[in-house]
Amino acid sequence: MTQSPDSVPGPERPLVPAEAAFDLDGVVVDVMTPFLRLLAERHHRTGLTTNDITEFDLARALGLPETVVTELVDDLLWRPIQVGARPYPGAGPVLARLAQAAPLLLVTSRPRAEPIQDWFAAALPQIPADRFHIVATGDPFGKLEALRDHGRRVFFDDHPEACRQLRLAGIQAILFDQPWNRRDRDLPRVQDWRELARWFGLDIL
Predict the structure, then answer these.
(1) Of the candidates 97, 105, 100, 106, which has an alpha carbon nearest to the alpha carbon of residue 203?
(2) Average pLDDT, the chain
(3) What local confidence, expressed as pLDDT, does residue 10 receive?
(4) Does residue 42 contact residue 174 with C-beta atoms inside 8 Å?
């Protein structure tokens, strides 16, 4: 197992909720747990954990045919409620608190917002529908325009290269720690939602 790189201290001043935005998959939504469960149920590949997913290319990381990965990822993209995707521990309380201060902006590389918007409403009912907005870019490298359009200067993502691109454009991009991004040792990162909350001056977990 690759050891998680150390996180860096938070900012000297707490982040402002109205200036921040969040990726969904790998930050708010745990999609890898249902991916591995479906893989075991349908294709009898058992004994794997998220720590085995050491890169974004799932076929290469797990030694799977591309057709199997496509089948399971399609279910995660279009049927997140039905496949049992859940929020990461702590995401709900922290997002609910931040939503009290400013509407949440969630920017995802998914191709369509509607399935994950329905999931968000079902999985995080404590956040009113008028307090969150989801933008689907269809591309992990297409998030800059959405962030600029909504005046957001801070972004939490699990994709190192996307974070690096955003930082070059002036966005304070922070990596959300996951097994598949631990080869990157250069970007600021948070380990979990407890640590993320502290970047906003919250100590609620």
Answers:
(1) 97
(2) 95
(3) 67
(4) no
Other C-beta atoms within 10 Å of 129: how many?
10
How far apart are alpha carbons 133 and 130 in whole angstroms?
Answer: 8
Residue 190 pairs with which residues in a beta bridge?
176
Per-residue pLDDT reduced to its tens digit, 154-178:
999 999 999 999 999 999 999 999 9
Tell me the angle at which helices 66-78 and 32-43 cross, rounded to the nearest 10 degrees.
Answer: 130
Question: Is the CATH number 3.55.50.30 carried by domain 17-30+86-199?
Answer: no
Closest of 188, 202, 168, 205 to residue 99, by C-alpha: 202
Q: Which helix (H) or strand (E) holds 107?
A: strand 104-108
Listed by start position, the domains of the chain span: 17-30+86-199, 32-78
